[in-house]
């Protein structure tokens, strides 16, 4: 295994994911599908990694990530790092798309994709501040590493680790129930027993 190998896991589906609500710094429980996705991540790790104890494991402090880590990592207890918490989305948090459109019609209509929502959330953290805290995390990180975190956090980490800038992240997906492996600046999505290029 390369000393630079990093494995990224997004938490399983939550109730708010299913309802289309932005969670950000808030939380909601994993659904039954979310629990199965975390179990699938455990199987993927067991298939591809002979010994999880060789890795330094980190997780966001938010309960959805902690629950996923407990399932996916089994007996390996991750280091909880607050810098891995999801982007704070301010007034968007807890709202469905319809509720955002009703409460903030002009601003919501101006957002063309998820990244616009994250960047423009009223009272939110913004992607630049998120990037700064994730850069600081990477400087302190011990490798090889497994990280259990969130959609936007993992997208930005993928950009930092593969040399993509923020505009390039708009085209990336952030799947649940898979493991994304990054080594030497290249990423591979591990899904079940198959490997697919992103």
Q: Can you characterise this structure?
A:
The protein is α/β, with parallel strands linked by helices and 198 residues long. It has a domain at 6-38 and 47-86 and 141-165 and 175-196: Rossmann fold (3-Layer(aba) Sandwich). It is 41% helix and 15% strand. It contains nine helices and seven strands; from the N terminus they run βααβαβααααβααβββ. Strands 3-2-4-1-5-6-7 form a seven-stranded mixed beta sheet, with helices on both faces. Helix 2 packs across helix 3 (63-72) and helix 7 (127-140) crosses helix 8 (151-162). The longest helix has 17 residues, at 32-48. The protein starts with 5 loop residues before the first strand and ends with a strand. Residues 193-198 have low confidence and may be disordered.
Keywords:
Rossmann fold; globular; 7 strands; 9 helices; single chain; alpha/beta; 198 residues
Low-confidence stretches: 193-198
Helical run tally: 9
Largest sheet: 7 strands, mixed
Mean pLDDT: 93
Q: What is the fold-level CATH name, i.e. the topology of the domain at 6-38 and 47-86 and 141-165 and 175-196? A: Rossmann fold
Describe the global form.
globular
Our estimate of the beta-strand percent is: 15-25%
Q: Please tally the β strands and state the result.
A: 7
Q: Looking at this structure, what is the CATH superfamily of the domain at 6-38 and 47-86 and 141-165 and 175-196? A: Phosphoglycerate mutase-like
H/E series, N to C? EHHEHEHHHHEHHEEE
How do the strands of the widest beta sheet line up side by side? Answer: 3-2-4-1-5-6-7
The second-level CATH architecture of the domain at 6-38 and 47-86 and 141-165 and 175-196 is: 3-Layer(aba) Sandwich
CATH secondary-structure class of the domain at 6-38 and 47-86 and 141-165 and 175-196:
Alpha Beta
Protein name: Phosphoglycerate mutase
Organism: Gemmobacter nanjingensis
Keywords: Glycolysis, Isomerase
Pfam family, one: His_Phos_1
């Amino acid at each position: 295994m390369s000393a630079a190998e990093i494995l990224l896991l997004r938490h399983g589906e939550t109730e708010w994911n299913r309802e289309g609500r932005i969670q950000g710094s808030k939380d909601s429980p994993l659904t039954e599908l979310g629990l199965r996705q975390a179990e699938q991540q455990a199987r993927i790790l067991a298939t591809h990694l002979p010994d999880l104890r060789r890795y330094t494991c980190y997780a966001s402090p938010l309960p959805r990530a902690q629950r996923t880590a407990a399932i996916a990592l089994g007996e390996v207890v991750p280091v909880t790092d607050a810098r891995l918490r999801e982007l704070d989305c301010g007034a968007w948090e807890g709202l469905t798309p319809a509720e955002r459109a009703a409460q903030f019609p002009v601003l919501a209509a101006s957002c063309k994709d998820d990244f616009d929502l994250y960047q423009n959330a009223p009272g939110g953290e913004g992607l630049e501040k998120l990037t700064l805290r994730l850069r600081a995390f990477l400087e302190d990180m011990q490798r090889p590493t497994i990280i259990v975190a969130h959609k936007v956090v993992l997208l930005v980490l993928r950009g930092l680790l593969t040399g993509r800038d923020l505009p390039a992240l708009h085209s990336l997906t952030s799947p649940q129930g898979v493991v994304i492996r990054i080594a030497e600046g290249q990423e591979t999505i591990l899904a079940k027993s198959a490997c697919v290029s992103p």
